[in-house]
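From the pipeline queue, job 12 of 40. The input is one protein chain; the requested action is below.

Action: predict structure.
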Amino acid sequence: MSRSEEIKLRRRKAYAAKKRHAHEKVGEISCVRCGCTDDRFLQINHKEGGGGKELRRMNGGDRMINEILAGRRKVDDLELTCAPCNAIHHFERVYGLQAWIIKWCPTEDRISL
């Protein structure tokens, strides 16, 4: 492994750890909708929407994570969802669609629709 690859891997691991600490401040490390516990899929979701605006105002998710970790960003309006459930939350909120069910199958190491 080259030096630049080692640095990239170290940064990726450090960011994953920082993101996990922020997730722990938001709540239990699982999707509030389907129970997914795989960190790779979990995202911070704004319960009432507005996440895109906040991310643009903060110039990205890394700053929001830093604000959460520093205690400057309250987390009462946030929850953890997996990427599919976060997208469905958006469709439900914006378009009123309610026909989706996500089921987390950890023993199968996949998400079933």
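Job complete. The longest strand covers residues 42-46.
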